[in-house]
Structures are given as structure tokens and as C-alpha cells.
Specification:
Spore Coat Polysaccharide Biosynthesis Protein SpsA, Chain A
Length: about 280
């Protein structure tokens, strides 16, 4: 990994959040990161934010900018909610342990939007690292049920969407293992007979790395004690307010629902300009 520049705008805090944004042809990940960061500033106390990217970004919502070249494989994948493919640069996540300026780091996907301060509770956790191992489909579309496991051997699906860690040997071992899986993805995909994707995925890398670090024992530790609230593709956004994202499910009885103020992982990132505009308007009011 080539770190081109670390532009520090403010003094580094002990606690902070890292976002990663590498552009594709169809999705403006820097825009997603900007909206994500504004919501973090609105709702969280631990809201010192570092953006890792290869783009020149000048926005005061980011306290630090780390410029780093893309690392790992660059893949092509179908864009969720569309009929076309796009490049997918997702290999830099295992490098975050090395580049994070914080003692305690919360690493978030930029399509994860914050509506409350529950993630502040992770800072000071007794766990050296933790992440989600269960997902909640708030549209009850059942489209996420197949994501409970992966591979021929039914490995538990661990979500890299929200990953908290402290600078310590155990966390360093986890990220080192993720790098090893990333850099030898073809081998690990064949070894675990992962048929869901030929492309490198951080969720799968995290699951394999967790087993390596824990000695292949099925532990019940290191899990965030609530589900990862997720909005699937088959929805129509109706509005954004203090109740979260209001939407109409198009896969069942077209009932108007809400994420009820929960932080939420939004799977459909393309063709979602209306949602991004409403999220940004909410974040700045």
C-alpha cells in the first residue's frame, strides 16, 4: 500500500471513526462518505472522522484525510438494484489498522447511516474488536436470509460494515489475517469452496480471519450485541426524519414503514440521488 499523504486538519483524538471511499464509474463513494460523516457529526459524541481515499477532498466534515492508493484486487461486480456491472475497489479495509490515527477506531462502510448515538457505547468496550454477526431486514423481504452463512462449509457470515477495534496485539492479528486472505484470495476461495462470489469480499475475509485468530473455535465473543439493521434493494424511499428512513416495501403489501431511528445499512447505492439528498438535508438541519 502506498500512502501518498496524511493531511491532518485537527489534533488527533484517542477515539475516532474511519471511512473509506474509492470511486467507481457509477457510484460517488466520496459523496456517500460525506453524507455518512454529516450524520455521524449530528448524532455521535465520538465524531472525529478520518477519510481514506485516493481523491483530493476538501470538506470540513472530515477531520483527517489519508490519501492512499487502492490496494488488493480491483473487481467488477453487478451494481445492486441495476442491470450493469461496475468496478469495485474494496481491498484497503485490512490496511486500516496500520493507518488509523486513533487508539480506538470505529470503521464504517459509507453506506451505513447513523441516526442515534448507540455506536458511542463501543468506545471503551471490554472487547478488543467487535462486529455484527446478525442482520435484521427491516423491510422483511427475506432477501438477506441467504447471507447467514457462506461457502460450502457454512461459515458464519460476519459483517465488516461496522468494525470497532483498539490498537492491541489481538486486533493487529485480526487485520494481519485479513490481509493474508485478501492477498491470497484465490487460494482461500477455493479452500473454503466459496461459491457465492469469485471476487474478494471483506465480510468473507473477516469471517475467515476471525476463525484463524480464535483457533477455529465458535466463540460468542467479539460481537456487537444488536443486529445490523439493513434496508434491502426492494424499497421506495418516502422520506427521512428523526424516525429514520421512511420507505415503502415493494416486495410485499406496499406498507409504509420506518427504520425507527436505528442506524441503517443501505444496500442500494446506485440510482439513489433522492435518498442522498434527503439524508443530507436531514443531517444539516
Amino acid at each position: 500500500m502506498n500512502i501518498m499523504q496524511n493531511t491532518q486538519k485537527t489534533s488527533t483524538q484517542s477515539n475516532g471513526i474511519v471511512l473509506i471511499a474509492y470511486q467507481s464509474r457509477q457510484i460517488d463513494y466520496v459523496k456517500l462518505a460525506t453524507v455518512c460523516a454529516k450524520l455521524i457529526k449530528k448524532h455521535m459524541v465520538n465524531n472525529h472522522i478520518t477519510l481514506m481515499t485516493d481523491q483530493e477532498v476538501s470538506n470540513p466534515v472530515f477531520d483527517n484525510i489519508i490519501l492512499a492508493d487502492p490496494d488488493g484486487p480491483v473487481s467488477r461486480r453487478p451494481v445492486v438494484g441495476t442491470t450493469y456491472n461496475d468496478i469495485w475497489i474494496n481491498g484497503n479495509r485490512p490496511n486500516v489498522y496500520d493507518v488509523s490515527p486513533y487508539d480506538n477506531t470505529l470503521l464504517l462502510d459509507v453506506d451505513y447511516f447513523v441516526f442515534n448515538n448507540s455506536l458511542d457505547a463501543l468506545f471503551g468496550s471490554v472487547e478488543t474488536f467487535c462486529f455484527h454477526n446478525k442482520v435484521y431486514d427491516c423491510a422483511e423481504s427475506k432477501s438477506l436470509e441467504k447471507l447467514n452463512t457462506f461457502g460450502h462449509y457454512k461459515m458464519p457470515h460476519h459483517w465488516a460494515t461496522v468494525l470497532y477495534f483498539t490498537k492491541c496485539p489481538e486486533s493487529e492479528a485480526l487485520f494481519s489475517a485479513m490481509k493474508m486472505v485478501r492477498d491470497n484470495w484465490t487460494y482461500y476461495r477455493k479452500f473454503y469452496r466459496i461459491h457465492e462470489s469469485r471476487m474478494y469480499r471483506n465480510d468473507f475475509s473477516l469471517g475467515i480471519a476471525y476463525d484463524l485468530v480464535k483457533g477455529f473455535m465458535r466463540h460468542k465473543t467479539n460481537f456487537i450485541p444488536w443486529h445490523l439493521t439493513t434496508l434491502p434493494v426492494a424499497i421506495e424511499v418516502a422520506g427521512v426524519n428523526d424516525k429514520g428512513i421512511e420507505f415503502v416495501s415493494v416486495s410485499s403489501k406496499r406498507m409504509r414503514c420506518s427504520t425507527l431511528g436505528n442506524n441503517v445499512h443501505v444496500l442500494q447505492k446506485a440510482n439513489n440521488e433522492n435518498l442522498m439528498e434527503q439524508l443530507e438535508n436531514y443531517a444539516t438541519t
